Amino acid sequence: MILISHRGNTSGQLKSWENKPVYIDKTISEGFDVEIDIWMIKDLFYLGHDEPQYEISISWINDRSNVLWVHCKNIEALEFFNKFNYNINYFWHQKDIVTLTSKKYIWAYPGKQPIKNSIAVMPEIMNDDVSKCVGICSDFIKEYKL
Length: 146
What we know:
By secondary structure, the protein is an alpha/beta fold. The chain has helices at about 20-30, 60-65, 75-85, 125; strands spanning about 1-5, 35-40, 45, 55, 70, 90, 100, 105-110, 120, 135-140. About 20% of the residues lie in helices and about 30% in strands. Strands 1, 2, 3, 4, 5, 6, 7, 8, 9 and 10 form a ten-stranded mixed sheet that branches.
């Protein structure tokens, strides 16, 4: 099972820490993948959910590409990753029931499980059946670690 921290959270939401590079690195060091929110503004990359907050470099992303799930927050970020052949698992969604990541994972909105071979996003919200999933993305990802 792929265990994915939502914005760096592992034991509940810490909104003031979400998407901070140091928080992401701490979570990665604990053995989790991390879903991050990326913006591209005037050829620069930023982390942040509702707005661009923390500037990062493409090398920062590349150095962690094997454990990042990159949620593109604007079209410019999506176009950038789609144009270049980086080994980055990225996707775009807003309130879609499901979306497909660049590495062909089904990223499923809460309450839409079970979907075979999908990533269950925040399954605790709707008490989703995760038995058919290949991964879980949650603010409480430590609770899923066996």
